[in-house]
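Give me the fold.
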Amino acid sequence: MTLADPEIIFLSEREATMALRMITEKAMGLVSKQYQAALGASLAQTGLRYEDLLNEGERDIAEAMTLADPELITGRTRRIKRALDLGFKRKNLQDYAPDMELDIYKSELYETVEKIRARDQEYALLNAHNK
């Protein structure tokens, strides 16, 4: 085989797609880790969790919140109010509670959201023949 051999120089379309996908996944992995670190630092300043950022206006999230434990909703509401108060005062949570340990990426609600989305998708697939 020589360098002029087309088998060596050119990749098949499938191989090129796989290579591009691998490069994209690697780059997205690096960028997502940096973004997660930056977001975590920002959330730690206000005392919020990542799940507190979920939009209550979306139907599946609103349904998951109605099914959630009342203590979970109370904690979420308190964290949001505390973050609003800290933002208004232009302070950090560390100014008031320096020893407080935060579990920023703790997931309590999102599992229910995923179940609701899977249920809705299954319902849509089962009723696809009605369209």
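Helices lie at 6-9, 13-46, 59-67, 70-89, 93-96, 110-126.
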